[in-house]
Design brief:
Order of helices and strands: HHHHHHHH
Oligomer: single chain
Distance between the termini: 27 Å
Number of helices: 8
Radius of gyration: 20 Å
Length: about 180
């Protein structure tokens, strides 16, 4: 299976240094996302043990798990985009001739880049506001909110980078529109 993934990655990046660098960054983001999910599961198990076996109270666990799962979702975006793991419907691209499929792919990538750019910008603005004003959660733990909010601009920023790499790969002919073979 590892051989299959690496050969598929080579087909999408070719020998292009930028594409290979972005692929590596997206892969690292995927590993970080998986680590966050595993940490959230471990904290949940610890919380269950504390509450139901030791009959104790938990202070930080629920909040930490929520922040970790949200961060894992956002940080994992570029990895899922790289693997084309998002749900898609390819009925229209399959029905189009090759040239129109290419045009549609360019339009979709450009629109995606525009939307994700806005999300990254406002995500950064929101994070910066929380950091600048020293916002804390209204819980006993009182976590500094800039820490979990950092996942918003980082996740969308990395997704933006992956989308730009996908656009470059399409434009230079390293990748096919929607990852579909020419009909």
């Amino acid at each position: 299976m590892a051989g299959h993934n690496s050969s598929a990655a080579m087909a999408r990046t070719g020998e292009n240094t930028f594409l290979r660098a972005v692929a590596l960054i997206s892969m690292v983001a995927g590993w970080c996302s998986a680590a966050m999910i595993m940490t959230a599961v471990a904290i949940t198990c610890q919380m269950i043990f504390i509450r139901f076996v030791l009959n104790g109270s938990t202070v930080w666990q629920t909040e930490a798990v929520i922040y970790l799962v949200i961060a894992a979702t956002l940080i994992g975006l570029p990895y899922v985009q790289r693997l084309r793991g998002h749900v898609n419907v390819d009925l229209l691209p399959l029905a189009l001739p090759t040239r129109w499929r290419y045009v549609l792919s360019l339009v979709v990538l450009c629109l995606s880049i525009a939307i994700v750019s806005v999300m990254a910008f406002y995500g950064f603005e929101f994070w910066h506001l929380a950091w600048e004003r020293g916002w804390r959660s209204d819980t006993v733990w009182g976590v500094k909110l800039w820490i979990p909010y950092l996942a918003i601009p980082v996740g969308f920023g990395l997704l933006l980078l992956q989308l730009i790499a996908d656009l470059v790969a399409l434009a230079i002919g390293v990748d096919k529109p929607f990852g579909l073979e020419v009909s």
